[in-house]
Amino acid sequence: MKIQMQLPQFSRETTLLIVAAKQHSVFYLAFNGVLDKVGGLEEPHEKYSDREGFFVSSGTGHTASGAVYEENKQEVIRKFAKKTVAEAERLVRERKVDAIYLFVPDYVASELKRDLPKSLKDLIRHTFSGNHVDEHPFKLLEKIQAERF
What we know:
Layout: E1 15-20, E2 24-31, E3 34-42, E4 54-59, E5 62-67, H1 73-95, E6 99-104, H2 106-115, H3 118-121, E7 124-129, H4 137-148
Parallel strand pairs: 1-6, 6-7
Antiparallel strand pairs: 1-2, 2-3, 4-5
């Protein structure tokens, strides 16, 4: 889509916008007044029935019970961050990206940055904190414009 004139036009460098959350990411490529969605990843949220995984344990005079409704959230974030980084590496390589802007919550940013190779870390211009996956891409460009000036 054509970028509105009052927003950054990215006329000198091909820029990748990585917008990610715990289980959803979107990739936009901006260059020469045009912004295109070039990819995205989404992991479905696990559906757990009521009381699934319920257990009762007893022995030595003690009784314990509980239910495991979902796997470790940190592990989910870690796995998805690896997939997001792999897709970002592919896009940077194929599209000859010059700059990257990250739009990620703090709890995802650390995982993403840990997995990024140095060559991609050097391309990061700015990291915007928060969950922005459902925002219109022009709102993301407004944040970039506000950061630049």
